[in-house]
Amino acid sequence: MPFDVLAEPARRRILDLLLQRPHQVAELTHHLGLTQPGTSKHLRILRQAGLVTVRKDAQRRWYELRPQPLAEIDAWLTPYRRLWNTTLDRLEHHLDTMEDDR
Q: Are both 4 and 42 inside the same structural domain?
């Protein structure tokens, strides 16, 4: 799972932008406020992790989100999300009980 890849805020921002639509490097660079080489480095890492693909259109390269790996991460996290929801529900109940005792 590409958690180390997703740990970088700039890469998460790239994925957020690609979720909206495919982008070229120059557009991503503009939105991120990074240099072109910096943006390209992040895109290369995202491609290697299988989170992004590149589509060539004449002389342009369009970067697109690959949602499947993110769906796999989401599926893996589902039981943990349930665990946290249960724990937070118990905490909420406990806090409500404390308020009632006052």
A: yes
Indicate whether 56 and 96 sit together in one domain.
no
40 in the same domain as 86:
no
Whole-prediction pTM: 0.75
Measured between alpha carbons, how far is residue 74 from residues 6, 25, 56, 81, 94 in Å?
13, 27, 29, 9, 29
What six digits make up the tokens of 72?
């796999």
Q: How far apart are CA 39 and CA 25, in angstroms?
A: 7
pLDDT per position as a tens digit, 62-97: 999 998 888 888 888 888 888 887 888 888 887 888
φ, ψ at 50 (rounded to 5°): 80, 15
Residue 50 C-beta-side C-alpha neighbours within 13 Å? 10
Q: What separation in angstroms does the CA of 24 have from each of 4, 14, 33, 40, 53?
A: 24, 11, 14, 10, 12
